[in-house]
Amino acid sequence: MNLAIDLDCCTGCGACVEYCPGHVLALDDQGRPFEKHPDDCWYCGVCQVECPAECIEVVFPYLIR
Amino acid sequence: MSPHEPVRGDFLIIGGGAAGCLAAVRARELNPDLEVVVLEKAHLSRSGAAGRGMDALNNVVVPGVGTVEEYIEAVEIMADGVFEPTVSRVIGQRSFGILKRLEDWGLDFPRGEDGGYIVNQFHPKGRFLVEMRGELKKIVAARTLEAGARVFNRHVALRLIKEGPSIAGAAALDLKSGLIRAFLAPAVLLAAGGAARIGLPNTGYLHGTFDCPWCNGEAHWLGYQAGARLTGFEYTGCSSMTRDFNGPGLSTFIRHGAWLVNGLGERFMERYDERLERAPAGVRMKAMREEINAGRGPVAFSFSHLPPETIELIESGIFEAERPTMRDYFRAKGIDLKRQPVEVVTSEVYLCGGHGLAGLVGDAWGQTSVPGLFAAGDCLANPYGFLPGAMALGEAAAERVVELNRPRPGGGAAAGVLEELEKAAARHRRGGLAVPVRDFEYKFRRLVNEYVAPPKSGPKLQRFLDETESLVRDQDDLPAGEPHELMKVFEAKAGLFCARLAARASLFRTESRFGLYHQRVDFPEKDDAGWRTRVIISPGPDGPVLAKEKS
User: Fold this and answer.
1) What is the ipTM of this complex?
2) Contact list, B213 vs chain A (CB under 8 Å)
3) How many domains does chain B have?
4) Smallest Cα–Cα separation from B184: which of B26, B412, B420?
5) I need a labelling partner for B172 at 20 to 30 A (CA). Which of B214, B333, B435, B528 fits?
């Protein structure tokens, strides 16, 4: 996983899902975002800057951290 | 409207990045009645190689600073003489207008002490890089929507549709619904980016690439299948890339005067080229590779000789305008540009018309040899056109489309194309190969690293072509249960297509050129008499036909 999504802070607005250029994120049955296709992430940070409640942080994988 | 009904328009744009957006805006400016349709694989606000941001316009002929002729001369040096100047001339001529347009739209072009734009040197000669700040893609996307373009986000173009010799539209997959639908128009612009996922990064991450990983040669493949010609595929580019992180920095570091140093602290470019870090990219990369191979690594960009205000400008560019996650990465690694060098590695090889020579062949309007089919941006051979090149050719294509005012196609050819694609999708749902597309992609990219990436040789290149023949046979049975997977399969097929053409073109050019990028150990010398010419790849009845361009 490449993202730390604080679900207590998330409002479920879906902006991260909408804007992610890699189609990485999706909303689950309860309307909460998750990384459906984590391998397609470029760590570009669009989700992080687009989240209006600032609930997302890019976490680099251990292999490259 | 039923989702099975075709969408009709006058100008279909495949890819809503910088080139596609500027084409849409320009077309609607010239003819507000023109129905412009944009197919975007991601979301228009954040798509394309510059989707997160960009800290400079890389090639602007600023009046009083440079001339179009000087710009063309600089590009010819970067292209090592294998150069057709038509497209570069258009970029040079239009570049300042692009800057003024972006400034008018609200992009910030910081001013230097003299009150003018901050223009620095990256090219081997001349100053063409203009510092820029602001949320580029959000602004450009908003203007595209304001102009009245009809945008279909999360739509992947899978095939071009032709009627007779002419273009008639495209069939595209809706990632949300999974439906494949026809989009009909008498003019189509391919603006879907370069081919980033050709070689494999040393991190092993399929998407950990230097260039935008969501563009993988689909435009090249679509264009070629429709009859368009390609060039420059032997120019297998790679870049210096921050170790383990695919973030920006290369042109930012060089234009602000950073030094490349080896593990001994030597500014090693002094031994290779009098232009030092501003040598053509392939020369710089060859020097880097030689230092590393000689055991003098690690190689790094060093900043400690620069004044603090220059380092702050670098930081604001890469951290704020372009990639905030790079700040996070540097922080996590404890890297402070004022104190430490930034280690760089040679990236995987890629094919990119705006960063090198590989792409579709187009004229001064990006017009291909297929009537009604245009190309712009990183899928067009627009040598080192970078961001302004994409925008300039997007605008130029739009002007030609408006001028030609071709009649709308009847649409009779769409049904057959849709049926064929539905059959192919059903075969992928069955997935007879039972190998995940990730493994398939990893395999051919590992083979690219072994056999196609420089240094090259005839036996290695031929081995790649032989070894990947079975992959070509297998690819139509790759499993894809849902639309996202179908997109990944399509991207992998396009990438393999491009990689095989890169091998063919590299075999064809029996000399060494472009520094590291086309270093043939079996033909180590540059042969200007025989090879100072582009290699053109045309679709033939029995496969690709390669030929030297007739001057």
Assistant:
1) 0.96
2) 22, 40, 42
3) 2
4) B412
5) B435
